[in-house]
Amino acid sequence: MPVIRSELVIDAPQQLCFDAARSIDLHMESTSQTGEKAIAGVTSGWIELGESVTWEAVHFGIKQRLTAKITEMESPRYFVDEMVSGAFKRFRHQHEFIPVGKNQTRMLDTFDYSSPLGFLGKMADRLFLEAYMTRFLWERNLYLKQAAEEQFGRMQEK
User: Fold this and answer.
1) How far apart are CA 133 and CA 6, in angstroms?
2) Which of 30, 20, 56 is nearest to 41 (CA)?
3) Less Cβ crowding at N or C end of the chain, within 10 Å?
4) Angstrom distance (rounded) from CA 18 to CA 15
């Protein structure tokens, strides 16, 4: 059961970072390399507590679908999405946003998952899946950082 953690400081206020992370539209932009699309549930705008989204994407050359639901949320401090159905046995993805200084936010991301297929899934984690997911989540978080900072910069110019 790997747990992937990352931490970034974003030069933007807490609320803006929180909203960027739960934006369906930004999620699709940030995962364009896998062709990720929201195809059911909330398909644009911000996802809220109790709502779900079904994603379709291509990973490892295979088209896959995954449905996640927002199971916890305390705006603008954190939210949790958990897999309802998909390729993993389970996952819990926590996003935390902590103000650090004037108009800066520390984003903590914790992705806790279990692969299916018992021993074979554990081998896949060790051989490639954990590294793939770490890179996938890091690139997404860097995209969110850039988008939030650009949006905040535009707000400052007005």
Assistant:
1) 12
2) 56
3) C
4) 5
